[in-house]
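At this stage, I put together a protein sequence along with its fold in token form, as given directly below:
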Amino acid sequence: MLRHITSSFKAGALLSTVAAVGLMLPTSAGAVSVSQQHIQLFPEKTEIVVNGQKEVLEEPAALIQDHFYVPVRWLAEKLQLKLNWDASTNKVGLITPKAFIEFDSSNGVIQVNGKAVDFASVAEIRNDRLLVQLSWIADYTGVSYKLASDMQSAELSFIGTLSTAYKESDLIKDDAQPNSKPIALFALGKSAYRLGEKVDYVDLSYDPDAEGLPGYEWEGNKDAFYKPGTYPVTLRVKDGKGNVSDPFTRSVTILDEPYLEREAFPYYYSNSGTVFQAGKGLLNSLSSTERKLPVLVRQPEDRPLIVGRSMNPNSQLGYLYQEKVNGKARLNLQYTNGMDKPARFAIAIRNNNEKAVHITTTRKSQPNPSIYGEIRANKTAEDFLSSKSLDEEMVVEAGSTAYYALSKDIDPGQVFQGLYDITADGEVSVSYLMINPGDSTYDLGKYSIVGQKESKSGTYPVSEVTWQIDASNLKEMTKLGIGDTSLEPALTGMNAFSKESLVNEGNSGVRYRIKLDNAAKTGIALHPRNGFVQGSVRVNGNVVTYPAGGLTSNEGLLLYRTTGSEKQVNIEWMSTGSAQLPLDVVLYPLNAK
């Protein structure tokens, strides 16, 4: 209830402000309501037009020094903003969504959040009624307005405030706004949605104190609904001081009209990096052998892959694996200290030639030791894919041995990992070892070969695989399997110690470069076909966050959604030690909806 002003104001002469939002709000079913306001005002005329209906003002708008002024009391009533008068100070206080405004006509001052503004510059008293400059008050309320070129009319548009006002703190005898509860408010993009159609929630929440809204609590706000009916959605917000708003509820109406299946929704609407439940029905309907797109697979053998890995933690010091290198190679090792004391892991290079050999590192990733080896493995691969090209050189003199990499002290249970692309301009012997802390290269002669019964180490001729996919004729959902032998040959190699033939299970340490050409609007995802897959992925040079726990066959990872204008999409993929292939690259054409 507003109190009347005495002194320079007569009863009912009060200002108010505009709470404006430039979006249409559909009527809420069973909730507080809002309404769109469109108003035409004319200077010196008491008759106005509100949503096509005529109304009469007690005091008309006015043109004052080429500025359009509006009566404050009327404006406040339209917006249901809080207006108060302190009889002891003869000041009028007004709360807007962005400010606490205090009008002090006796002293010719307006305080806006404690800062002084000259009263006469934006306010005027006429016929004992207070008017305020429209362009000035609009800045604090967000009202949309348009002035005629001859200034003989003004059009205002805004959303009416809630019919049931939220309770906020009372005004106090101060020059600053008291702390108020924030306001939870949202709109829906449409009055009704179809089955599987994305629901647009338009957030209109605000804090009268302008402290920000760090906390949002939603209930029932699903991205899409798959059964017809009416579903309540509730929002609460919290301001910077911990005040929680009253709940605001609006109902979403879902029509009994199909739009998208649940399994197809992520391809149309989810963001890159989203992990979603992979529908067995949709994916299982795809044949694994029927190739619907031409794919050119290349497996160059110019950079062999030297893998060092054990099935169990290493419990003995010594040589874990060894291979000769002459030219390019990729070193990929992951070992765990299985002893009860600290140890170190090393990569040693022995030069048996009569002249020095230069070793150039062109790319590498070597994280700090960790007990979370499998979890860290995908980050090691991610770092390797993202790292810049290097040109680091070391020289191994004739007949000597040098450490290429030497870890810190590795505590029991910790894992050492590394990925390195190197080039040697002569033949050298590369060894992976676990040694005592403090051992120099002169001490390596005392060690022997260990841990071969549990070894998964081997040398493979292929460390890079490229796919070239022509997607110009993509008409229906298609999957292409990384590690699917119907598409690409298995990556086989040999253990240099035992001479045993091996298959690179999971294609660990192999970088895939997949080039997708001529794709129209397409959703691209990864989906393990039969098991668990760990690894890292980039699209067009950008890392797509891979879940730390890996992907299972019940999950998919959305990589990218083309716009239809890209000539090519570039995907880089590298698996780690835990990968049960095939891993399907799923291509889903996005038909117009």
DSSP finds six helices and 41 strands in the chain. The longest helix spans residues 373-386.
